[in-house]
Specification:
Blueprint lengths: L2 H8 L13 H25 L10 H22 L13 H23 L5 H32 L5 E6 L2 H13 L5 E7 L8 H15 L3 E4 L8 H10 L5 E4 L11 E6 L2 E6 L6 H21 L1 H14 L5 E7 L5 E7 L10 H7 L17 H8 L7 H7 L3 E3 L4 E2 H4 L15 E3 L1 H5 L6 H13 L3 H17 L5
Parallel strand pairs: 1-2, 1-3, 3-4, 9-11
Antiparallel strand pairs: 5-6, 7-8, 7-10
Helix pairs in contact: 1-7, 2-3, 2-5, 3-4, 4-5, 9-13
């Protein structure tokens, strides 16, 4: 058998006995940045606090040692919470969740030690340094994530991946890995999955040769119906201790990962699929975010909304606010508000323009819509026409983040998959708005909306809000 020889041929452990990865240089950059930002945050907290520490503590100890101790403990918690795990850095919301979790634990430790030692350090660090540090670290992560995506677009920091499998699932897996290059997997070869009756040792030996020749650092396995049960176990044993990750794709590639949990049933691990319905705590968290951010945005942007309203009033005939019936969560109708950016007869021309431009998709958009007024083009360019929908959000008919609401005649054109968009409240912004805005066609936008519904998380909403601001400032894809 070629187990030992294969292990020597394709990789080795690092000096500390742990697997090395293509993200190790990126991880070092992240660690250095986090350490610097945490130290800055604790120093700022100390300097801005009028009474950072109790007089009973040695002032020299407080000034020179406390920032180092707290930032060091904070960093240690980031490590313990897996914030530098190469499987999650630069990808998804799990990274942000672990940073937030480590910060909350640090907050609890600082407050607890302050109480036990009767030292007034919680005000300086808990209410200044910790929030500031959290913001700085998250912003730093987003900066490095953008840098990583640009590097991956040039072919750097990619895990050379061998897809193991045959049939539709393997083809879809390869397509997903190729299209999602930002995730960092570069498919370099494909190897058929073993079938019942095959010699598993010979099959793994052949795979070992492919791994060595392609210099692969990942194996993505898409098991088929006739794949023998022992294949995965023997493959995992062969790759153990080598710098090669093993990824296993379930047969249901269109099912959201967060909804899948492994539950043992009679000693057999089975995938349990949860409903894509928000629980009561999740609905409360999402609604709380809508109210807090919505009220803040309405107050801050009220001068902008007044200027927009005066512009619409003085430059064209008709009402300032355009009201239209849209379809919301569960198919319920509501009245959506916008600053009017079109001429008064815009709705009457809608069907005529559909036929003229041969558009029958549910998402009706024209690149140069003749119904749009001159100031309306400016409002749309910077998404200012959507600001009145903050009142829809505060009223509860919409959310800050969610699939964009469609008019009734658009929903009438829905096919079965599109109704999945209606599982959550419609949003002021959504995933396809930050991915491409009006540059995307209907099928691409629908895929992103369904992806959002299937994978909703509160941290994901926060990330999308931040990305929306960047997309609006850049004016990317606005219509």
């Amino acid at each position: 058998m070629g187990g030992a020889n294969g292990a020597k041929a394709t990789g080795s452990k690092s000096a500390n006995g742990k697997k090395t990865g293509v993200l190790s240089p990126f991880r070092r950059r992240l660690i250095t940045t986090d350490l610097a930002l945490l130290l800055v945050a604790t120093l700022v907290g100390l300097l801005l606090s009028a009474r950072a520490v109790d007089s009973s503590l040695n002032p020299i100890f407080a000034v020179y040692s406390m920032p180092v101790i707290i930032s060091g403990a904070w960093f240690a918690l980031l490590v313990l919470r897996g914030a530098y795990d190469q499987r999650i850095i630069g990808l998804g919301t799990e990274e942000v969740q672990r940073v937030v979790s480590a910060t909350l634990i640090t907050f609890a430790l600082v407050a607890g030690l302050s109480y036990l030692l009767r030292a007034d350090i919680s005000r300086a660090y808990a209410f200044i340094s910790l929030p500031l540090g959290l913001i700085l670290v998250i912003v730093g992560r987003f900066f490095w994530r953008g840098w990583l995506y640009r590097a991956r677009a040039k072919g750097r920091f990619m895990s050379r991946t061998v897809v193991v499998g045959t049939g539709q699932v393997a083809d879809e897996l390869q397509e997903w890995l190729t299209d999602g290059s930002y995730a960092g997997y570069l498919v370099v070869a494909q190897h058929p999955a073993p079938k019942r009756g095959d010699d598993l040792a010979n099959w793994i030996d052949r795979l070992d040769i492919i791994l060595a020749e392609s210099k692969a650092s990942a194996v993505a396995l898409a098991p088929a119906d006739d794949t023998p049960g022992g294949a995965l176990r023997q493959l995992a044993w062969r790759l153990e201790g080598r710098p090669i990750d093993l990824l296993i794709a379930p047969g249901m590639l269109d099912i959201a990962g967060p909804r899948l949990t492994v539950r043992p049933v009679a000693g057999l691990p089975l995938l349990h699929l949860d409903e894509a319905v928000l629980s009561r705590p999740q609905r409360l968290a999402k609604r709380s975010l809508d109210l807090m951010v919505g009220i803040l945005m309405a107050i801050i942007l009220s001068p902008v909304m007044i200027i927009c309203a005066l512009t619409v009033r003085l430059t064209s005939h008709g009402p300032v606010i355009f009201r239209q019936t849209r379809i919301g969560k569960g198919g319920k109708t509501f009245t959506m508000l916008k600053f009017r950016t079109m001429h008064n007869n815009a709705d009457a021309l809608r069907q005529e323009l559909r036929e003229l431009h041969d558009q029958d998709d549910p998402m009706f958009k024209l690149m140069n819509d003749p119904r749009i007024t001159t100031p309306g083009k400016f409002l749309r360019r910077w998404s200012l026409d959507e600001l009145p929908q903050l009142f829809n959000v505060l009223g509860g008919s919409m959310s800050l983040v969610g699939p964009r609401p469609h008019p009734i005649d658009d929903v009438d054109r829905y096919e079965a998959t599109a109704y999945r968009r209606l599982a959550l409240k419609p949003g002021l912004t959504g995933l396809w708005q930050v991915e491409g805005r009006s540059d995307l066609d209907w099928e691409q936008a629908l895929q992103l909306d369904v992806y959002y519904v299937e994978r909703w998380s509160l941290s994901g909403d926060l990330i999308l809000l931040a990305r929306t601001i960047r997309a609006v400032v850049q004016g990317r894809g606005a219509a």
